[in-house]
Protein 1
Amino acid sequence: MDVMGGNAELAEFLRTRRARTDPGTVGLSPGPHHRRVPGLRREELARLAGVSADYYARLEQGRHITPSDGVLAALARALRLDDAESAHLFALARRSPSPVRRRAPEQQRVRPGLQQMMAALHDQPAFILGRRTDVLSANPLAKALITDFSAKPAIERNYTRFMVLDPAAKALYPDWEVVAADAVGTLRLDAGRYPDDPRTAELVGELAMKSEPFRTWWADHRVVERSFGTKRFHHRIVGDLDIDYEAMTFPGDADQTLFVYTTRPGSASNEAMRLLASWSAAGSGPTAASARVDPEKHR
């Protein structure tokens, strides 16, 4: 499996995005000949992007080419990439072939002001993800809802690792495959920004070795940038919850993302969250990951 690597990574990303693009969505008719493979042909994408077929073919072959911003923008438009995918495309294309490459900071710390803000959120789970989706900090209610990452060995304090490998995650998320695949997409986005981070390579290698779903998701080259949304939870004590989340980054450290979970006032989920908060405040709130997972129920 290709974990990370220069123009080969760019080539694979272009190939997978081309394969998923329906010709009809970009104004192309099926034509008289049956398509043997899904998506656009190389020459079709080249024509849509305004480049020669030979030039595009060399890009997809992983040749050492540095496309201009204009070419990258044209490819992004032709492939209908979203903002996260476009940023990923530019990051992959701007990788330097020289030994001097962009490395990730060795250690991340959450500033005291953010710690205080999370602690003040008594009825809202809140946590911060850093590089490679490492869990840097979480308030008590987030620990009660999801799991207490701070109680785990340092190597296991990673959101994607928890989602992919921990059986408790499958019990906690009714839509586990969707949520886990999104986490892998977030990890893929980070890997594009820091291609030479050894800890990312170790994490990807471990997950690829231990999880077949991860290998499938990683090979798809899908990238995800979290902003807001809704997730379904099934907590072993308070039951089912529909939770809205907001993801925020802050000036000064774009590699840290604060997630805040809320429930709609007056809803059953809101009542369940208030109950969980009361248990958490009393120091008796169980974490979701401490639940005994029934292997037959979640087979």
Protein 2
Amino acid sequence: MGRWLLLLAFFFSIGGHFLVLQTVAWAGMLQNAWAQSHRMDEAVVRTFDGHHPCAMCLKIEKQRETEKRQKECRLLEIQKEALPWVAIQLPVLRQAPFDYPLCLDRDGHRTEEPALRPPRV
């Protein structure tokens, strides 16, 4: 039961309910357009061309935009609250200058013997 509730919560969190509502709206539009024109190809074109949205499609789009704006506002509020803490917690990292080891000459050859002897065969 817990898995199903988790999947249902995930479905709603990603906007799956809009997909279900839009599918219902398209089915209604297709049925109405097919009943009016009596040709299936014309009904499909009229339903999915984007120039003839039904009232339900307009309401779904309006609600999507409203939820999108609300999420953006919440995100901005969270960022405003978290920003001072992040700025305080993160230190400024500076790159240290790279110095070549003293044991190399100008050509990059070693001038000193290695600290360990090579392994025996």
